[in-house]
Amino acid sequence: QETVKLELWSRQDPSGPLRPGNVVKAAERLNKELEAEGSPKRVEVVVRESPAKGFDDDALQLLKVFGVGEGPDMFIAAHEWICAFQEDGFALKLDDYIAKYPQHFGTIFPSLWSSAKCPDGTYAIPQDAEARMFFYNKKLLREAGYDAAFVDSMPERTLSGDLTMDEVLDIAKKVVDKTKAQYGVLHRPNKGPDYIMVFNAYGNEFVDPQSGKLLLERDKLAAAFGWFERGVKNGVIPANNTAMEFDALRKEFYSGNAAFWMYGIWDLGSVAFPTYGLPQDERAFFADWGWIAGPAPKKGGSPVSLTHPIVYVIAADTKEPELTVRLLGHASAADLNTDHAVTTTHLGIKPEQLEDPRYAKAWPLARATELLKITKFLPNNAQFGDLNGIIYAGMQGIESGRLSAQQAADFVIEEASSTLEDVIVK
Amino acid sequence: MAAQAIPMASTAASEPTVDWDALATRARLARRTKATVLYAFLIAVSLPIILPYFWLVTIAFSAKTGVAETAVLWRSMAVVVPAVIAFWLSAALAQSRRQLWIGIATVAAIAVIAFGLLVGPHLHLGNFIFLWEPDFASVVRSRVGEVKGAVQFPNVWHAFGNSILIAGTQTVIVVTVASLAAYYLSRFQFPGRSSMLRSLLVLHAFPVLTLIVPMFLMLYWIGLLDTLSGVILVLVAFELPFAIFIMKGFFDAVPWDIEMSALTDGASRRQAFVSVVLPQVRNGILAIAVFTFIRGWEEYIFVFTFLIRNSNWTMSLYMYWVRDDVMGVDYGVVSAVGVFYLVPSLILYMAAQRYLMQMSIGGVKG
Amino acid sequence: MAKIEFRNVVKRFGTVEVIPDMNLVIEDGEFVALLGPSGCGKSTSLFMLAGIYLPSGGELLFDGHVVNEVEARDRNVGIVFQSYALYPHMSARDNILFPLRFKKRSRDQALARVKATAELVRVEELLDRRPSELSGGQQQRVALARALVKEPQLLLLDEPLSNLDASLRLSMRTEIKSLQEQLGVTTVLVTHDQIEATTMADRIICMRAGQIEQVGTPDDLYLRPSSLFVAGFIGSPPINLVAGEAAGGTVTVGGAIFPVEGASGSLTIGLRPEHLRFAETGFAGRIAQIEPMGREILYVVETGMGAIRVLEQGSSVAHSTGEQVNIDFHPENSLVFDTQRQKLITGAHVRAPD
Amino acid sequence: MAKIEFRNVVKRFGTVEVIPDMNLVIEDGEFVALLGPSGCGKSTSLFMLAGIYLPSGGELLFDGHVVNEVEARDRNVGIVFQSYALYPHMSARDNILFPLRFKKRSRDQALARVKATAELVRVEELLDRRPSELSGGQQQRVALARALVKEPQLLLLDEPLSNLDASLRLSMRTEIKSLQEQLGVTTVLVTHDQIEATTMADRIICMRAGQIEQVGTPDDLYLRPSSLFVAGFIGSPPINLVAGEAAGGTVTVGGAIFPVEGASGSLTIGLRPEHLRFAETGFAGRIAQIEPMGREILYVVETGMGAIRVLEQGSSVAHSTGEQVNIDFHPENSLVFDTQRQKLITGAHVRAPD
Amino acid sequence: MTTIVDELRVERRGHAKSVARRRTNFVLFLGPAIVLTVIFFIVPVVIDIAVSFTDLSRSLRITEFTTEQYEKVFRTDRRLSQVIGLTFIYVFGTLAIFNVTFGLILAITTTAIRNTSGSFFRAVWLLPRMSPSVLYILLWLWAVSPTEAGLVNQVLMRGFGLDAPLDLLTSAPIALIIISNGFIGASMGMIIFTAAIRGIPEHLFHAASVDGAGTFAIIRFITLPALRWPISFVTIYQTLSLLVSFEYILLLTKGGPFYDTTVYALYVYRRAFESGQYAYGAALALFLIVIGVVVALIGWRFFDMERLLQRPRIEVH
Ligand SMILES: Nc1ncnc2c1ncn2[C@@H]1O[C@H](COP(=O)(O)OP(=O)(O)OP(=O)(O)O)[C@@H](O)[C@H]1O
Ligand SMILES: Nc1ncnc2c1ncn2[C@@H]1O[C@H](COP(=O)(O)OP(=O)(O)OP(=O)(O)O)[C@@H](O)[C@H]1O
Ligand SMILES: [Mg+2]
Ligand SMILES: [Mg+2]
Question: What was the pLDDT predicted at D49?
Fold first, then answer.
C-alpha cells in the first residue's frame, strides 16, 4: 500500500469550514473506491491552513508560495483569482478530466462552470455559490406609507424589470423621511463583491468578452457611481457607510433602523436568525422581511444578482493530478456539498441537492436559488481584485463627498490605467 | 579678600517690610491649586486610555448576546470612580496609619458590595469558551445547524504556544546579541565605531514592512522559509538596532572604575563583562526584554507571510480570525480573546514597569 | 537682615523622623555653623530655612514671623550648595543674574548689580564662561555671587568648601568669612568639618542624629564639650578617651591610678593629644608609632590604659619607636565625663599620677 | 615585589599629548606619591601601570621587563579607586574573593585568604553585607582588601581617601601606611592633597601638566622645592611669594630692600608663613586679618610687598588687627627663585632687612 | 608568590596576542549583531533595490529588467504628491503634538507629583505601547464607531448632550490616525524625558526656587534646557519611526476613506501588497529609504549624535 499525501491549501474561513472538511471526508470515499479497484494507492489529505484575512490576501500569499515552488496540490480560491494562477502556469487545466468523470462533475450547474473558466479552458471546480441581494424591511416600508401589496410585490417587480434602482432610493428616502429609521440603504464597509451588483446593473461588465482584458466604460461607471451619489445626497446612504463596522451595519438593519441592506443570503443563517432573532419560519419571515434582486437601472431593463463562487483549483505541478481530480470529485458529491450549503447558508452546485429535504427545509436557499437565473459573476481576470479596490476607493470618495460621480469614474479609469496592465478604456 | 566698596548696604536699609502672613497664605493656596490642577489634568488625560481597556474587560466578562454593550461599563464605572476617589480622600485625610487602614478597608468593603450588587449578576465566563472548547466557533454557530468535520478551527492554546515561542526565543536572542554589541559599541575603541552607531540610526529609517517580499525571497534562498527560526531571526534583525541603542545607553552609564577594577583583579574584558558589567545593566536588559517580547507577541505580518506550511497560528492571527466579520462577530468572544491576549503582556508589563521608566539614551545628559 | 528662630521644629520624611524637636535662635547678623556627622540632619534643617522642605511640625520664624509655609522664592534667602548647583547651560553672568530676573528691576540695574557682586567675589573676568569652563574654586565664587546678588536676609551655605582642594578650601574659608563680616548678613554654614566650623563661625551648633548636642563658641565646644559625643567629634587628632572607675578621690584606669576631683562612679576621662607632653613624671608608656604631620608630630603611645595619642609641636622627631616615655598634662586641661549619661561633669578634673 | 620603571613613556589621547615624556624609577617596596593638581596626568600614569591604558610610546618596565603590552590581569597589580569601585551586586566577601576567582586555587584556600585579608583590614564582621550597606570607610577597607587579597606586587591607590570625611581620612591614612610597611608592597598613591602625600609617602613625585616637576622626599619638596610651582603647591597655608629685582647684593621688593646672596636679576622670593615670626626688627607691616586655626593662628600682614601670611604656633591671639608689626625670619629658610625660569637658585638666600 | 610578569614569553608575544584578542573580541561581541543585521536586514534592502529594476510580480516571476517602475513613480503616479503632503502632516503633526510636546507634558507633570501617583499615570500611558497592536486598534475602532454604540459617541451624547453621533473615521481621519499613533508615541518621549528629568541634579531645582523662580520659570530655565538633547533625540528618532511605520493606520483606517490617511509607507504597502505589484512597491520603497536615510543623517549632524560616543576609558581589549 502506498499513501499519497495531497496537500490542500485552505483559508481559515469561519464562513465555510466544510470547504476543506468535505475534501477530507472525500478521501475516505476515494480510498474505498481505490480499494475496490485494487489500486495500492491510498490518499491522505493534509490541510494547510492559511490565516489570511480574505480571499484576496490569501490568493496573493499563495501566488508567492507557488512562486518559490512550495505550492500545494490543490487549493480553495475565490473564482475571480483563478486566471491569475493560470497565467503563471500554476493551475491545472481541467477540461479533459471533467469530461472523463461525468459521475462527479456532470450535473454541476452549467452557469457555475462559467465562473471556473479562463480564456483557454476550465481551471477550477465550483464549490459553492450564493446570491447577493437587497434585503428590505417590510415593516418600515409599510410604516412609510407603502401598502402591503406594493411591498410584497417588489421581488416580482424587480425580476420583471419594473422596479428600478432609483425607485429603491425613492422608497428608502421615504422611509428615512417618514419613519424613525435613520438609514435608507446600507452596504458592506469593505472591498467585496456585493456592490459590484450595482455596477452590473448599470451595464458595467468590466471585462472585454473578446480579449478577456479589463474593460472600463466611463459613462457606465459614472452612471453607477451616480446612483451612490444620489443615495448619499438624499441622505439614504450614510456618508460614513464605509467607516462603520460590519456588525454595526447589520445591527442597524436587523434592528429596524434601515430600509435596505445590500448583502448575501448567508447572512440570514449566520447572523440574522441567531443574533438578531429574525423569524426562522419562512412565512413569519416574509411577513416583515424580504429581498429583491438588484433592480434594473431603468424601467424595462434587466435586473441583476451576483454570485461569487468559491472553487477548488488543482496545482499544475501536482504529482497525482488524476487522484486529485477524483478526490475533488468526491468532495463535490451532492450530500457533502449540501452539508456545506445548509450549515453555512450557501447555495448548492448541483440540481440533485434541491431534492434533498434538508435543502428544502433551509428555505432561504431554496428561495434564493431563483436568483441564479439572473446572476452574474465577477470577471475572471487576474487583476479584477485590484480594480475592485480602486472602485471601492471611488465609492468612498463619493460617499465622503470628496468626488462627484463623474470624478469618481475618472478616478477609477486613471488609477486603473496607471497601475494595472492592459486596461481597455471606453 | 580685597577691600571693596559694599554695594549692598545702601539698598539694604530701604528694604520694604514683608507681609509674611500674606505670603504664607498665598503659598498655601498656590500649593493646593497646583496639586489640584496637576491631578485633574493627569486624570483627564488618562481616562481616555483607561476607559476602553476597562470596557474590553467588562464586555469580556458580561456580554451575552455577542453585541458590544456599555451598560456594564457604566455601572462598573459608577462603582469604581467613587471608590477610587474615596481611596484617594481617605489616604489624604488619614491622620495615622491605623486610620488609613480603616479608611481603605471600609471603602474597599463598600466598593466590593456595591460591585457585587450592581455588576455581579451580569458577570459570567461564557465568553471564554474558546479556552476549553477549541471548536467553539461551531458551538457558537450550532444555531445554524451542526457543523461536522470541520478541520480548521484553530486552537487558542496552539496559537498561544506559538506566540510565546516566537516572542520568547526572539527576546532571548535580541537581549543576548544586543547586550554583546551594545557593550562593544559603548566600551571599545575600534575603527568604524562612529559609523556603526550612525548605521544603527540609519537602519531605523528603513521601512521594514515594505521589505517583506525581499525577505521572503531571502528566506527561501537560505532555506528558512516556512520555519519558525526564519520568522524569529527576521524579527530579531529588525529589533536589534533599537535594542542596541537602548542597551548602549545603559552600558554608558556603568562606572568605568568598577570595570577597571575587575581588569586589575585578573579578569579579562570578557570576564569583566559577564561578571561585573552585565549585572549593572539589569534594568536595561529587563526594559528591552519587555519591549522585544511585546513586539514578538503582537507580530502577525511576518508570521503570516513566512510560515506557509506549518500550522502557524499565533495570538495575533487568532485575534484576527475571531474578529473576521464577514459572517458576523461575537464581540463577547472577541473581547474575551482580547483580554486573554493582553494578559501575558500585562503581567510582564506590571513586573517590569519600574525598569521601563529608567530608560535613557546614550547616558548623555543635557 | 534677619533673626531666625526654630521653635519645636519637627521634620519627618514619611514615617522617619529626621528632626524630632529643634529649638534654636540665630541672631541677626550672626555667623553660625551647623556641625555634625553625615546624616544627622544638617542639610534638612538648612533646607527648611530655605523653604525647600516644609517643617512637619513646630514653627520656623524669621524676625518673629512664622514662615513655615512661605515659599522659597518669597524668603529672600541666598544658598550655596556643596555641588555649587550652577545652571549648567547659562554663562556665569546669567547664573548671577538669575535671581534678579524675578525681581522688578530694570535690566541695566540688574546688570550693574551683577557686575558689582562679581567684583565682590572677584569673578568679573569670568562672566562669559559656562560653569563647565570654570575651575572648582571659580564655580564656588560664582555660586556665592548668585547667592549674594539679591541681597539676601539670610545666607545658607551647605558644605560649600568640601569639593575644593586643600589650599583652595583655605583661601575660600577666609574670603567667605570676611565677606560675611563685611555684609553683615545672617549666615548658616553646614559642615561636617570641625576645622571649617571653628575657623569660620561665631557660634557652633553641634548636631547628632537630628538633635542639637551643644551650642556655643568654638572654644566652648573645644574646651568644655558638654558630652562625650562633642568631645570626640571636635579636635584633630581626636581626643583620647579612657574609661575608669572612680572612688575615694582616685580613678583607676587600666593599670594607672589618677587623683580625681569632684566626681565618682563610672567615668570617662578625655585628654586632648595636644595637651599631653612627654615629661620626667606622669604615666608611663612605650612609643608604638610615630607620624610626622608637617609642623607637628603625632606619637601613639602604648600605656596601661590603651593607645594614647600625643601631639608634639615642631617638625623634628625627638623620640624613636619603642622608647619608654612618661606622659604628663595640666589638670585643668583634663575633661571628666559621666560614662552613663555621656555628659561632662563640670568642674571635675584629674591629675597625672606622679 | 617589583621595581617599576618609566622610560620615556608618552601618552596621547587622540591628538592630545597628556604625558609628553615620563622617566621615573620606583624602587621595590617603596611607597611613592604622585602629587599634582587636577588634570595633570596622575591617574593616566597610574592606569598605564595597571594595564588599563596602553602607553603611546616609550617603555614601561616591571623588574626590568617591558610590560607595555602585558594584559592587566597578568600584571598582578592591586588598585583602589577614589569611588572604591566595589561591585555593587556582590557581598563584601564576594568582592574580596573576586580576584582569586581567576587564580588556580581551591575555593577553601581562597576563602581562607579572604578571611585573612579581611582581618588585616578589619572588616571580617562585614563580609556578608552589600557595598550599599557599608559606610564610606568600610567600603574603603573592603576595596583595600580586594586589592590586597591576591598579594599584588604593586599596589595602586587613586585618591583613595578623598571621599572620606576628615577624621576617617586621618585614621585610614595611618592604616594604609602601616599596612604597606607590613606587607612591603611597592605602592603608588595618587593624590592632589599634599598633606596626604607628605604624611604617607617615602618619596613624592610632583607632577604638573604631564611633566614631573620634582621627585624627592617630603622634606626635599618642602624645604628645597625645585621650582616655583612646587613651592606654591606644597605647604599650607601656602608660601608667600614676592617678586623683586636683584642687583649688587640686594633685592628690591616693593618698598623693602633685602640683602641677597648668590643671585641677581629678576627673582621671586619664597617665605613660608611658618618660618616668619613677629620680632623687634625685620620688615614692617600692619596686621590686616587674624584667623585662628585651632592650634595655630594665621595673620595676614599688609606690607610694602603686599599681603604676607604669618603663621604663629599657639592658640591665643597675641596681636590685634591694625597693629604695626615687624616680621623676621632665618635666612636659611628663605627660598630664591629665578623668575624667568621659575626654578630654584640653589644656595641663594635672602636676609630680612634690619 | 608568582612573579610579576609570568613569563618572558608573555612580554614577547604580548603584541601578537593583543591583536588577536582585538579581533576575537570584535567577532564575539559584534559578530552576531552584524551577521543577523546584514543577512536579515541589509541583504533584503539590497534585494529590494535589485527588485525595483525588474518587473517582479505577484508570483515572484521576473521576466525583464527595466526602469519602468521608476518611470511610473515619477511620471504616471499622480497620487504621490498628495501622499507625500499627507505624510508630512502626519509625521510632524504626531511628533509635534504627541511624541514630543505631550510626552514632555506627561514627563513634567508626572514627576511633579508624588512618585507613586506619578508612576501610576505613567503606567497608564504606557499601556497602549504594551498592548498588541491588533488589540489596541480594535479598541479604537470600537471607541470611535460612528454609531451611538461607540464609546466616544456615548460619552459625547450622554455626557455632553451631542445630538447625532460623530463619525470621526470619515470626518476627521487624519486627526484620528495622529491621535491613535500619538497615544503610543507619547509614551516613548515620556519615558526618556522622565529619565532625563530624574537625572537633573535636585539641587538645581532647589537653587532655582530659592532664587525666586516659580513653577513655570523652573520648567523654562531648568528643566527644558536640561532636556534639550533628549528632545532632539526623540524628535529625530520618532520622525524616522513615523516615516516608515504604518501598521496602526493600516489596522485603523486601511488608508481610507479614499486615500485620506494613506501615508507614504502605507501607500507603498497598498500598492505592493494589496495588488502584488512588488517591483513597483520596491521602487516606491527605495524612494522612502532614501528620504529616511537623508533625514537620519541630517539628524545625526544637526543634533550632534556623535556625542553618544564617549571615548572608551579602557584601552585594552
Ligand atoms: N528627601 C528625603 N527623604 C527621606 N529621607 C531623607 C530625605 N532627605 C534626607 N533624608 C534623611 O534624613 C537624614 C538627614 O539627612 P541630611 O541630608 O539632613 O543629613 P546631613 O546632616 O546633611 O548629612 P550629610 O553631611 O551627609 O549631607 C538622613 O538620614 C537622610 O537619609
Ligand atoms: N580617556 C581620555 N581621553 C582623553 N583625554 C583624557 C582621557 N583621560 C584623561 N584625559 C585627559 O588627560 C589629562 C590627565 O588626566 P588624568 O585623569 O590623568 O588627570 P589627574 O591628574 O588624575 O586629575 P584628577 O586629579 O582630576 O583625577 C586631563 O587633561 C584629561 O582631560
Ligand atoms: Mg547634607
Ligand atoms: Mg585622577
Answer: 92
Helix boundaries (H) for chain D: 42-50, 92-101, 107-120, 136-148, 166-183, 194-200, 218-223, 228-233
D18 lines ligand 2 (CB under 6 A): yes
Tell which wins on pLDDT, B99 or C54.
Answer: C54
The rounded Å distance from CA D45 to ligand 2 centre is 10
Chain B hits for A269, CB-CB cut-off 8 Å, are 144
| pLDDT at position D127 | 92
User: Any bridge partners for residue C34, and if so which?
Assistant: C190, C205
User: pLDDT class for D282, splitting at 50, 70, 90?
Assistant: confident
Q: Are residues D150 and B257, on separate chains, in Cβ contact within 8 Å?
A: no
Position B67: which residue type? V
Check CB contact of E8 with chain D, cutoff 8 Å: yes
Identify the residue whose C-alpha is closest to ligand 1 atom 5: C13
Predicted confidence (pLDDT) per residue in A181-192, tens digit: 889 999 998 888
Which triple of cell numbers denotes residue D330?
632665618
Between CA A306 and CA A312, with CA A310 as vertex, the angle to 5 degrees is 150
E1 and D151 within 8 Å at the Cβ level: the answer is yes
pLDDT of E123: 87
Question: In this complex, does chain C touch chain A, defined as having at least 3 beta-carbon pairs under 8 Å apart?
Answer: no
Is the CB of residue C172 less than 8 Å from the CB of residue C137? yes
Q: D211-216 and D324-329 as β-strands: parallel, antiparallel, unpaired?
A: unpaired
Q: Is the CB of C205 under 6 A from ligand 1?
A: no
* DSSP string computed for D159-218: STTTTS-HHHHHHHHHHHHHHHHHH--EEEEEES-HHHHHHH-SEEEEEETTEEEEEE-H
Residue with cell 594665621: D298
For residues E218, E224, E225 and E230, what is the CA-based torsion angle, rounded to 10 degrees? 150
- Decide if D350 contacts D251 (C-beta within 8 A): yes
Query: In ligand 2, which atom is closest to the CA atom of D45?
Result: 18
Is B223 within 8 Å of chain D by CB?
Answer: no
Distance CA(E265)–CA(B208), nearest Å, equals: 10
Grid coordinates of C114: 551683577
Tell me how far apart the alpha carbons of residues A422 and A424 are, in angstroms, rounded to a whole number: 6
pLDDT tens sequence across D184-243: 999 999 988 888 888 889 999 999 989 999 999 988 888 889 999 999 888 878 899 888
| Subunits close to E (at least 3 CB pairs below 8 A) | A, B, C, D
- Ligand 2 pocket member D15 (CB < 6 A): no
- Cα E313 to averaged position of ligand 2 atoms, centre (Å): 10
User: Distance between CA atoms of A197 and A131, rounded to whole angstroms?
Assistant: 11
pTM of the shown model: 0.88
Mutation test of ligand 1: which of C42, C81, C162, C188 has the most ligand atoms closer than 8 Å to its C-beta? C42
Residue D42, ligand 2, Cβ within 6 A? yes
- Tally Cβ neighbours within 10 Å of residue E246: 27
In this predicted structure, what is the pLDDT of residue B360? 64
Mean pLDDT of E46-60: 88
Ligand 2 close to Cβ of residue D11 (< 6 A): no
Contact between chains at E5 and D68 (C-beta distance less than 8 A): no
Q: For residue E191, how far is the Cα from the chain centroid?
A: 14
Peptide bond into D88 cis (omega under 30): no
B261 and D146 in contact by Cβ < 8 A? Answer: yes
pLDDT tens-digit map of A352-382: 888 888 888 888 888 888 888 888 888 888 8
| Contact yes or no for E284/E271 (Cβ under 8 A) | yes
The ipTM of this complex is 0.87
Question: Hey, which chains touch D, using 3+ CB pairs under 8 Å?
Answer: B, C, E
Contact of D12 with chain B, judged by CB distance below 8 Å, is answered with no
Q: Is B13 exposed, middle or buried (0-12, 13-18, 19+ CB in 10 A)?
A: exposed
